[in-house]
């Protein structure tokens, strides 16, 4: 997508607006599958939580992707998008047995991450194939909020609880067809990933009927020029070799699975905003835009950095700005950032806005959530309408007082 394309989109659909480049998503998908082309059976489950628009799900399903879901609603979205139940894996956390049983009725792959639910489920549904999520106790990830494989994490069954896990499986006679881990997001050191993989291989030896081993994801993408990222090609070469060795030892051709979200869609997304006000104080020049953490919370929640471009004046003289929103709370997107000179009315683009951006948007301050647009085959397609006041009121019930 060129700047002129984005400016036309901002004019046609208004701002703020999320725009996703389908070609970039396809490129990332092919990059990942090519990295593991030495594995005979590979399954990519796209992590729906990263970007759950049904048109994006359809796009990925058409590429051959399965779906990684964490709620019954995401399962339903996946089915609505046309995914067959057998290519959907359902990995919830801290939910009731009742919700898991709803997923069973829909025919998707169940992935359980705690002993209590595992025992209850195995007692009631011993014949239903189940994957087990293991916590390898490996600290990985770029932020404490997205590091999920460490010893104090709420996710997964501790690797040290393997004897108890095996006893539950034996007592219930349940069918364990997969084993799974996810250590965290923004993983740079592939040796840490490979170390955790060895723990998963060792755990897999405790089960005789496995069909797949799921290594989660967490691959880091670049957020600025010169930024480092996970070397998936090197990981593919090393892990593929080790996986094939393990499959041969196991005596069965297992499926290697991954659950990428950010890796597939982050760089494909741009978030376009309009500059409402340029405000200079005694020490700071603020560029205040028509959005806030109600639309893009990652910089405030995770301390993440999104590159910001002035697509209205890309060749302007660089100046330093603090970019903030219109929310009645501190909502700083960028502090003292060098950006081509900004005027009121300019359109700014936040890069890497494809993952965990719109999906974490809210109606805080009773603001509307923005529109979403898919740039597909050199054409802009509206894939979500901008909300209106009717949407704010839709589920509210007015009582007579």
Offer a few descriptive terms.
Lyase, Ornithine Decarboxylase, Chain A, domain 1, 8-stranded parallel barrel, lysine biosynthesis, 31% helix, amino-acid biosynthesis, 2 domains, 401 residues, 12 helices, 9-stranded mixed sheet, decarboxylase, TIM Barrel, Diaminopimelate decarboxylase
Give the overall shape, derived from the CA principal axes.
globular
| Order of H and E elements | HEHEHEHEHEHEEHEHEHEHEEHEEEEEEH
Enumerate the spans where pLDDT stays under 50 for 5 or more consecutive residues.
Answer: 140-150
Q: Mind telling me the CATH class of the largest domain?
A: Alpha Beta
Report on the biggest sheet. 9 strands, mixed
Number of strands: 18
- Stated plainly, the CATH topology of the largest domain is called TIM Barrel
The CATH architecture of the largest domain can be given as Alpha-Beta Barrel
Amount of beta strand = 15-25%
Count up the helices. Answer: 12
Helix content: 25-40%
GO molecular function, one term: diaminopimelate decarboxylase activity
Protein name: Diaminopimelate decarboxylase
Pfam families: Orn_Arg_deC_N, Orn_DAP_Arg_deC
Catalytic activity: meso-2,6-diaminopimelate + H(+) = L-lysine + CO2
């Amino acid at each position: 997508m060129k700047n002129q394309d984005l400016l036309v989109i901002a004019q046609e659909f208004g701002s703020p607006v999320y725009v996703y480049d389908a070609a970039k998503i396809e490129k990332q998908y092919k990059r990942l599958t090519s990295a593991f082309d030495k594995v005979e059976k590979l399954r990519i489950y796209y992590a729906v939580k990263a970007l759950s628009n049904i048109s994006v799900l359809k796009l990925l399903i058409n590429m051959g992707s399965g779906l990684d879901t964490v709620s019954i609603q995401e399962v339903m979205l996946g089915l609505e998008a046309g995914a067959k139940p057998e290519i959907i894996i359902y990995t919830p956390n801290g939910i009731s047995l009742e919700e898991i049983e709803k997923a069973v009725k829909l025919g998707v792959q169940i992935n359980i991450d705690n002993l209590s639910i595992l025992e209850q489920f195995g007692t009631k549904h011993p014949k239903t194939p189940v994957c087990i999520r293991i916590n390898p106790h490996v600290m990985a990830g770029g932020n404490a909020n997205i590091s999920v494989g460490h010893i104090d994490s709420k996710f997964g069954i501790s690797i040290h609880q393997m004897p108890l896990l095996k006893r539950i499986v034996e007592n219930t006679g349940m069918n364990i067809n997969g084993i799974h881990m996810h250590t965290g997001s923004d993983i740079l050191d592939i040796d840490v990933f490979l170390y955790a993989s060895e723990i998963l291989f060792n755990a897999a030896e405790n089960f005789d009927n496995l069909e797949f081993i799921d290594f989660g994801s967490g691959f880091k993408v670049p957020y600025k020029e010169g930024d480092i990222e996970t070397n998936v090609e090197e990981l593919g070469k090393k892990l593929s070799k080790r996986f094939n060795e393990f499959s041969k030892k196991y005596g069965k051709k297992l499926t290697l699975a991954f659950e990428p979200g950010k890796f597939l869609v982050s760089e494909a997304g741009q978030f376009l905003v309009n500059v409402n006000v340029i405000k200079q104080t005694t020490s700071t020049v603020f560029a205040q835009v028509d959005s806030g953490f109600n639309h893009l919370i990652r910089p405030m929640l995770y301390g993440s950095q999104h590159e910001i471009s002035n697509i209205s004046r890309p060749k302007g003289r660089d100046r330093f700005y603090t970019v903030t929103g219109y929310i009645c709370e501190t909502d700083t997107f960028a502090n003292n950032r060098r950006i081509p000179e900004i005027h009121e009315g300019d359109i700014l683009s936040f890069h890497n806005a494809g993952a965990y951006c719109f999906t974490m948007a809210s109606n805080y301050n009773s603001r509307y959530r923005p529109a979403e647009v898919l740039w597909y085959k050199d054409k802009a397609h509206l894939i979500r309408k901008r909300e209106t006041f009717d949407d704010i009121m839709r589920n509210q019930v007015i009582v007579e007082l």
